[in-house]
What we know:
Layout lengths: L4 H14 E6 L4 E8 L2 H11 L4 E4 L10 E7 L1 H11 L4 H17 L10
Helix pairs in contact: 3-4
Amino acid sequence: MELTDRDLFWLAGLFEGEGCADWRKxxxxxxxxxxxxxxxxxxxxxxxxxxxxxxxxxxxxKPQNLPVWTAAIQGRKAVLWALALLGxxxxxxxxxxxxxxxxxREKSSCxxxxxxx
Length: 117
């Protein structure tokens, strides 16, 4: 899938509101994730990230709860996307991504030295 600036800005806005960046202890790597009930939106993210759509998941056994869908990436792919999104994030998300990228840089050489706190 070829991405436009518009696609990147769309993803940045979605990630700012619905995204999650965390550290995978088991794999010692960065993970980016979008999880929500709108399958079409998560499917679009999965295509952009070239990953699988996961779900549906049900967190509680209540009829009013909608199924949840997830798209997630980790490792080198997550690093590249984090770097692409970094400048488009708000203060809190930018700080979190920077923290995780710096943590990863301490453990490997896959994060460029242009990332700084």
